[in-house]
Structure formats: structure tokens, C-alpha cells
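In the previous chapter we treated chains in isolation. Here, by contrast, the input contains four separate entities that must be folded as one system, with a combined length of 378 residues.
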Amino acid sequence: MKAANTRNAVNDAKQVYTLVEQRFVDLWGDMSSWWGVSRTMAEIHGLLFITSTPHSAEDIQSSLGISRGNVSMNIRTLVEWGLVRRVRKRGDRRDYYESLTDVWEMFTVLASQRKRREIDPIVKTLKQCRSDLANLESSSRKVVPNPGHHVERVEELLGFLLTIEKVAEHFFKNNEGLREAMQLLAPIG
Amino acid sequence: MKAANTRNAVNDAKQVYTLVEQRFVDLWGDMSSWWGVSRTMAEIHGLLFITSTPHSAEDIQSSLGISRGNVSMNIRTLVEWGLVRRVRKRGDRRDYYESLTDVWEMFTVLASQRKRREIDPIVKTLKQCRSDLANLESSSRKVVPNPGHHVERVEELLGFLLTIEKVAEHFFKNNEGLREAMQLLAPIG
DNA sequence: CTAACATTTCAATCAGAGCTGAAACATTAA
DNA sequence: TTAATGTTTCAGCTCTGATTGAAATGTTAG
């Protein structure tokens, strides 16, 4: 009787952990669009984050039910970005992987990657727009109704993005930037 | 000769404006993933933002080369969110649309919409995870290797998201929140 | 009321981002 | 060296979310 109860408690606990892990992985997948990565990449990272032990590519493949190639491609990016580390086990030829554990550091990495891929090219294009508009002679502007309008809008957006960039630059300088900024902001509410 | 030069200047100016408008619309489309909206919705909004005059649905349709229904669906959401206003012209039965012009206000709207749709459900799930873990008896935790691990990770992520939420709450309370916050942060670099 | 015009809806279709899996490639052991 | 094991690549496929377009619905003028 005692033994049976203990067994049940053990099984219940395992179930809850498995359930929590699964829910957590799903959740991480749901957040993928925030970081501009694919659902699968986020799920792989979520699995490594919530789990305490390093996983092999095969572990990941079977846990998430995805193909070998998919694991390989996504892991490569995660390692490149520094969100996941490759670790070796002695006497085992396979690679194992583990996640960073600091949430703030992870999110700093994700945000800076996203900025690099998406904000930087936009700012570049916008500066081109500004210079095209500046090169117009003031006399020739008369032909367009509401001539200063375009300049205003472009300047306003550019101002916004450059402010964001300046703040981002500080965030990404080191791991503490994001945390500091949030602590600075949190009390103002 | 004089006339010809003037004509050329006029045409050049028009071309530059058209080019700038097109590039701006593309750019806005490129930013769509930042706001979690479709490319087309962003393009419609970009067109209305960069252009000084209100546009009818048909104007938008022909400018962007998309279908009537597509314009209708996307405009509806933009109006619901308050990014675009419906305006009427006297003696014209058609609806015309114009964008908000304040960049900070627009981005506040977009960010708060995104939070509502994506962050709120995630926090809800995460709290469920936390409570599932809390309900485990400490005795039954022994069966899992590294038992506190899950709790730690969940708590850490939840702490992060709740901090973000708190800051966001302030941002979204009024149009000035975002601007204020940025001004607060900008000097720290 | 009816006709003319504008808008919205939604089933069917399309496009493309992401995934698969088999073949090529790399590494290690013996 | 060869065999065994592990990893990466990429052409083709799949599946989801976006788009179309025609029919239904709504609106205004006369």
C-alpha cells in the first residue's frame, strides 16, 4: 500500500514535469514571432532552456518530432548567435547542446540580432529617402501639393528610429544594459 | 528653352516624390514583422502615412495593386486600432482614409495591440506552469533529477515578462508614455 | 420605392517560408 | 585504410496564412 502510493506520487510528479516542459516548449514557440525566428528554432531553444541536461541532436529530434536536418540548421544558428553552447561528453562522439540560462542575456542577444537584420537596413533606406528629398531644388517643389509633407514624415520616422537605435546601442553593449534600463523604467508607473 | 527646362524640373521633382513614396511604402512593408501585422496591412498604412491627402479604397487598391476585398479587410483593422481615420468628402459617397501622423502615437498603438494579442496569453500560461509546479509536494520532487530547475527557469522568465508588462502598462496609458520613456533612456548611453 | 453605387464577406486559391530526408561530407576508431 | 558513426546540405514538398473575386449586403439619391 505504502509502496503503491509512493509509486503513484512518483508517476504524478513525472507527469507534471513532463506536462510543464511540454507547455513551456509550446509557449516558447508562441513567442517566436517576438524574436523574429521560426517556431521550430524557438522550440529547440525552449527545450534546452527548460531542461537541465544537455541534449544531443537526436534527443531534440525525438522530443520535438522534427527532422534531423531541421535540428542541424536551427542549432547552427542558435550556436552562432551564442544562445546555445556545444558541449562534449567524454567517451561519446556526439555533440550535446545546452542553453544560456540568463533570461536577460538571452533576450539581449535576440533583440540585437533582430535589430541587425531588420532595423539597420530600414534606417539605411530611410536616409536615402531623406537625401533624395534634400536634393530637390526648392523651386521645383512647387509642383507637388503640400510639398514639405514628405520631408516631415521621413524626418519624424527617422528621428524615432535613431532614438531607438541610440537606446538599443546601450542595451547591447553588455548583458546588463537591458536589465538596467528596465530597472530605470519600472518605477515610473 | 526656358519652358523645356522648367518642364524637366517639374517632371524630375514628380519622379523623385513618386520614387520616395514607393520606397517608403516598401520600407513600411519591411517593418511589418516588427508590429506583427501582414505586409499588406503595413503597406496600406505606409501609403496613408507618407501621403498628404486622404485616399479612397480604390486609390489604395490601384496604388498597391491589390484586390478590393483585401483593402477592405485590412482597412477595417487599421480603423479599429485607431491608426487610420475614416473621413468623408462632401458630395462624394465614397469613404476616404487618412493615417495618424504622430509616429510615437502610432507605435504605441501597434505595440499595445501586439502585447494584448501575444504577451498576455503567454503570461497566463506561464502562471499556470508556476502553479502546477507549486502544487507538487516537495517529497515527490526527488524523482526528477535537478528538481528545482524547472521552477527557477519559470520564475525567471515570469519575472522578466512581468517587468516588461509593468513598463508597458505605463507606456500605453497615454500617448506620451513611450516618448517620455525614450527620453529617459536616451541619455544613459 | 428603385437604381446606382460602395462596401463587406468568405470559400476557393495562391505563394512562399519552413520542413523533410536522402545523399554528400566529416570525423573517429581500429 | 576502411567501417562506423555523426553532421550538414539542399532540391523538392508541404502546409499555413494571405489574397482574390464574385456574391451578398449596405447606403444614398431621386
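Residues 38-40, 66-70, 73, 93 of chain A lie near DNA strand C (CB under 10 Å from a C1'). The two ends of chain A are 56 Å apart (CA to CA). Compare these points with the single-chain example from earlier in the chapter.
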